[in-house]
Amino acid sequence: MRELSTDVVVVGGGATGVGAARDAAMRGYSVVLVERADLGQGTTGRFHGLLHSGGRYVVSDPGSATECAAENAIVGRINADAVERTGGYFVTGPDDDPGFADKFLAGAATAGVPAKEIDVAEALRCEPRLNPGIRRAIEVQDGTVDGWQLVWGVARSAIGHGAKVLTYHRVTDIVVRNGAVEAVVCHDAKTGEDVRIACSFVINAGGPWSAQIARLAGCEDVEVIPGRGIMVAMSHRLVNRVINRCIYPADGDILVPVHTVSIIGTTDVRAEDPDHLEIPRKEVQQMLDAGEVLVPGFRTSRALHAWAGARPLVKDSRVSASDTRHMSRGMSVLDHAERDNLKGLLTITGGKLTTYRLMAEHIIDRMCEQLGDTRPCTTADEPVPGSESGHNYLVTHRLKDREAERAPGSGDVPTDPIICECELMTRSMFLDLFEQQPDAGFDDLRRQLRLGMGPCQGGFCALRATGLACDAGHADATAATNALRRFLTNRWIGLWPILYGDQVRQTALDYWILQGTLDVEHLPETEEVAS
Amino acid sequence: MSLDFAGHEFARASLDHCVKCTICETQCPVAAVTPAYPGPKYIGPQAERFRHGLSVDHSLDYCSSCGICTLSCPQGVKIAELNSQARAVMKADHMPLRDQLISRTTVMGMFMTPVAPLANMALGISPLRVIVEKTVGVHRHAPMPHACSQSFMSWWKKRPEKPEGPRGVVVFFHGCAGGYFEVETSKKTIEVLEHLGFKVLVPKQGCCGLAEQSNGLFDRASASVLKLCDDLRAAGKDLTIISSSGSCTGMLKHEAHEIMGVSDERLRDVGTRVRDVMEFLWELHEAGELPEDFPRIDLTVPYHAPCQLKSQGMGMPALDVLGLIPGLTVVESGRACCGIAGTYGLKREKYAVAQAVGKPLFDMVRATNPHLALCDTETCRWQISQSSGVPTVHPISLVHVAYGLSELRQLIPAGA
Predict the structure, then answer these.
(1) Within this chain, do residues A242 and A282 fall inside the same structural domain, yes or no?
(2) Mean pLDDT confidence for B175-180
(3) Do the chains contact at B57 and A403, CB–CB below 8 Å?
(4) Does the residue A203 lie in any domain?
(5) Are residues A340 and A468 in the same domain?
(6) For testing the chain A interface, which of B2, B8, B19, B42 should be mutated: the one with the most A CBs within 10 Å?
(7) Pair A280, A250 in one domain
(8) Are B7 and B259 contacting, i.e. CB atoms less than 8 angstroms apart?
(9) CB distance A236–B19 less than 8 Å?
């Protein structure tokens, strides 16, 4: 067994976990973050990409609204490269109560969320696809955020401040002695090795898995309920601003333009197991119907992919255990010294991606307090690597980059061929990241590069990526075949629930190429270590 | 600037149909000859997903707007339309003077006609063309219209009025080129129509705005096309409008609506009434109303169907009509594009691309008949004539001969 030693172990490589690791590292603690899979593979990567202005909560949860408004500005600055400042509208649909907009404006004023009512005609001019039947429109500062870009930026910052980030390390035990945490034991999925990390403090940032993690330390009754929500990505931007229904928060009332797609979400249903989240077709239909209210023609627009994520909702005695929609979106810190007489373990859960940094600040403040330290939080002041310029993401970025590669003087001939055509990812982008992360699977690279996330869903680019992985020596033929097959299988999980219209034609063409011509399914099977 | 013309939402929605099959890329005549153009799939449905107001991909200016991509797309993606719209946004802030000048076809014709010999001489002087290339950006070897001493309208006005024919009344739309540079084609079209027994009305008329549209000047082009609709409608209600200007009819039939989003009752009215002259003759044939007692013409001649004619979705009526003339063998070129694409091939930086695009066609034309070729649209004829050295005329010219209104030796000099 490998032995490590550190001040703090953070369990969970989502936004909250990396945020906590960065915060602790910036305050001078030695930190090891462990994540059972890749960074941002849980809830952080399975949301709709909204960077809240706070507008959504001005009536239902004003405290969260105020937090969101403050963090929106900070995250847009420190994670500039992951955030697009699209702006957003709250619109009253043809059948919605126009009176809610008054409550909304009053709530926004109280909560300190910038909001301004604009002419419906102006909203329709700026967003021509929007339902011409809308009755009111309020402009807010919603943005969009790429959860993976954010998580990797924060992780790199943490590493820059001395933290160690161990992905594919599943926690198998939290060792407790004399009422205090002593070490965390992990299993390294890539090498098969066990690792014991001696530490004086553990931050449990496991999101919907945090109850399972707390249980490893003997804390049995952590009640975190996975609130499952599905999202559907449409093949291009139907709108260029976040469009919210101006109603009490409900299902399918947000349409978010993220990168090249627009994402509609979401539902909220209690799930038993965050590792098994279904995407029921009736919920997909529910999203399409809701989308139709915002953008006429939505049902016949092309859907690309669907997914489900699990919110880590803290059980709230005020609402019934199955009503996850109305549980608090606020964050919760569980102090296991108080609850369970166990020193050196804090669980942070609830919250939202928008407030990841604030959640980290709160939990590390609490840790400092318990350790008797007074070290101030500085995470709001320093941009993460890649965001130093302060320039926010623009949807035109990759098109501009590819254009620069063919600018006059470079002979007009592109030197760096495009591998993923839908998302304009080049050969060197793929190979450079593979060089940095040689153990990565195609899905790990996908989350950082958007490989296979466009309309063809890997039908064309996955084969090219496989060939490159072989050429560059990252995989032999069998390993590359396995990687390809796993990638396609994972894409398929998100494809089958939305097989209608244009995406059926694409899927059929992809199937003819991959199966009809290449018989990918029947290539020889091999044993593999990693999953 | 934002894409706030109505046609854009329609074209943009069509990108959802793209399955990346790449058929458009294999058919694009420009991408086949230059790496400077990333191709219709890239610039169209792919790049469109990354566009939001900002203009960052200047390579799209290499698209010639020939429209072959839209025509060949099996999924119905409006590729060429997306490209034209994106180019309009790109050029919104910095339209080169050259593109503004060459798109003002009426103005060019009006200035050149009174001084035709001078203008033609000037266009023939190489040092002058070099200066024009350097200052304005029109390539020194690019085909230029040949100015006529008499405009079509001044010929028409001096003509004695014909009595109403037995077949009723039709309206003639001459187009800018047919008004100033290709006056012969206009005259012959009218003579054929009158020979068939139609009374032809020619209302005073302006430009359709096609050149402005293909250069991204949508505001001007939209105003031009609607003004033209008013002009043509002034001739009378429900009359068939006939033109020998193939690209201008395309503008009226579908381009103004599909590319620029012009949605106006006047355009709909004119668009449904306008017919290419060969299309009109073929409709007469199908109705059994075309006199077909043609004399034998023993001739083999190449015919090139222009891109803008193909995109009208009417097949190749010139081939059908000329097929009625005994002895005449018309060989369809089977080549994609002549390269000129309106004003594209005139431009200094595009000239070589346009020549490379057209080369297979020029070779075919020369090999088929070195003395005569046929093509329906003006700028394509100029390009083919200039680049292949083979005189190229509108197909109506052979119909004119077949009806005994002129002689073949006027098209092909004796001994050739």
Answers:
(1) yes
(2) 86
(3) yes
(4) yes
(5) no
(6) B19
(7) yes
(8) yes
(9) no
Closest-CA distance of chain B to residue A309, Å: 25
ipTM above 0.90, yes or no: yes
Name which residue leads in pLDDT, A140 or B154: A140
User: How far does Cα B288 stand from its chain's mean position?
Assistant: 29
- State which CATH number among 1.10.1760, 3.40.140, 3.30.450, 3.40.50 fits the domain covering B290-411: 3.40.50
Contact list, B90 vs chain A (CB under 8 Å): none
Residue B8 to chain A, least CA–CA distance (Å)? 10
Tens digit of pLDDT for each residue in A168-196? 999 999 999 999 999 999 999 999 999 99
What pLDDT score does B3 carry?
Answer: 44
Three-state secondary-structure class, residue A378: coil
Mean residue pLDDT across chain B: 88
Domain shared by A164 and A103, yes or no: no
Task: Tell me how far apart the alpha carbons of residues A438 and A465 are, in angstroms, rounded to a whole number.
Answer: 14
Residue B143 has pLDDT above 90, yes or no: no
A509 and A423 housed in the same domain: yes
| CATH match for B6-91 among 1.10.150.240, 1.10.1060.10, 1.25.40.80, 1.10.3720.10 | 1.10.1060.10
Question: Mind telling me how many Å the CA of A500 is from chain B's nearest CA?
Answer: 12
**Is A529 part of a structural domain of the chain?**
no
Contact across the interface for A236 and B56, Cβ inside 8 Å? no
Q: How many residue contacts between A and B have a Cβ separation below 8 Å?
A: 89
Q: Do A128 and B4 touch (CB under 8 A)?
A: yes
For residue B159, give both structure tokens. 């003509």
* pTM greater than 0.95 (yes/no): no
Does residue B146 have a pLDDT over 90? no
Residue type for position A70: A
Q: Chain A: nearest CA to B208, how far in angstroms?
A: 28
Q: Do B20 and A455 touch (CB under 8 A)?
A: yes
Range of the domain at A311: 50-143+225-319
CA contacts within 13 A on the Cβ side of A524:
5
- Convert the pLDDT of each residue in B64-100 to its tens digit: 988 999 999 999 999 998 888 888 887 776 666 667 6
A288: β partners: none
Does residue B2 carry a pLDDT above 80?
A: no
Q: Where are the domains of chain B?
A: 6-91, 290-411
Say what the pLDDT of residue A408 is. 61
Of B35, B42, B52, the CB nearest to A237: B52
Point out which residues pair with A197 in neighbouring strands: A4, A184
Cβ–Cβ gap A400/B17 under 8 Å: no
Sign of torsion, CA B343 B349 B350 B351? positive
Residue A530 lies in a domain: no
Q: Is there a cis peptide before residue A481, judged by omega within 30 degrees of 0?
A: no
Q: Which chain A residues have any C-beta within 8 angstroms of a chain B C-beta?
A: 125-126, 128-129, 235-237, 240, 260-261, 297, 301-302, 394-400, 402-403, 406, 411-414, 421-422, 424, 454-456, 459-460, 502, 505-506, 509
Residues A294, A341 within the same domain: no
Which pLDDT score is estimated for A530? 47
Task: Please classify residue A99 by burial: count the beta carbons closer than 10 Å to its beta carbon, then call 0-12 exposed, 13-18 middle and 19+ buried.
Answer: exposed
- Nearest chain A residue (CA) to B7: A128
The count of domains in chain A is: 3
A494 lies in a domain? yes
- CATH number of the domain bearing residue A219: 3.50.50.60
Six-digit token pair at A316?
């709230």
Around Cβ B10, how many Cβ atoms within 10 Å? 13
Is the peptide bond prior to A266 cis by the omega test (within 30 degrees of 0)?
Answer: yes
Both A236 and A307 in a single domain?
yes
Q: How confident is the model at residue B35 (pLDDT cuts 50, 70, 90)?
A: confident
**In a shared domain, residues A365 and A311:** no
Greatest C-alpha distance within chain B:
61
Predicted local confidence at residue A320, as pLDDT: 56
Cβ atoms within 10 Å, residue B1: 11
User: Residue B18: its chain A contacts at CB < 8 A?
Assistant: 455
